[in-house]
Amino acid sequence: MRDCHGEPILVTSGGRLAGVLTERDVLMKVLGHDLDPGTTKVDRVMTADPDALSLDSTVGEALEHMDRGGFRTVPLVDDAYAITGILRQEDIVAFVAEAFPQEILNLPPRPHQVMDEEGA
């Protein structure tokens, strides 16, 4: 996880997604409960049978899923529940920024901020 800049570990069983281990799992379930990271098994603290999205899911569905579950990263699976990839919040931000550069670059740093007409 450290070598991959905090990316979650996707656990498979029989070629199917069986679990996800995130930084949050390690912090809250291992370090937060004084478990020994050197001896605690992954399957004890991972999120078993995690929610996933298919490659046919829309960006809107992904955002809703992430917001509802508090996820920063969501596994992508095929019909057999085999892992086909992961989708991160930063991937969506990059997609939106690339698709709508003019709109993104013209947004104020804070949504409630307005331009001062006197200085223009």
Describe the 3D structure:
The chain is an alpha+beta fold and 120 residues long. The protein has a domain at 9-89: CBS-domain. Helix content is 32%, strand content 22%. The protein has five helices and six strands; from the N terminus they run E-E-H-H-E-E-H-E-E-H-H. It has helices spanning 23-30, 42-45, 59-69, 89-99, 101-105, and strands spanning 9-13, 16-21, 47-48, 53-54, 73-77, 83-88. Strands 1-2-3 form a three-stranded antiparallel beta sheet. A three-stranded mixed beta sheet has the order 4-5-6. Strand 5 and strand 6 (83-88) form a beta hairpin. The radius of gyration is 19 Å and the shape is extended. The termini are far apart. The model has no long low-confidence stretch (mean pLDDT 87).
**Residue-averaged pLDDT:** 87
The low-confidence runs, each spanning 5 or more residues with pLDDT under 50, are none
Describe the largest sheet: 3 strands, antiparallel
The number of helical elements comes to 5
Distance between the termini: 49 Å
- The CATH superfamily label of one domain reads CBS-domain
Order of strands side by side in the largest beta sheet?
A: 1-2-3
Structural class: alpha+beta
Oligomer: single chain
Query: So what's the CATH class of one domain?
Result: Alpha Beta
Q: Indicate the radius of gyration in whole angstroms.
A: 19 Å
CATH fold-level name of one domain = CBS-domain
What general outline do the C-alpha atoms trace? Answer: extended
> What's the total number of strands?
6
CATH architecture of one domain: Roll
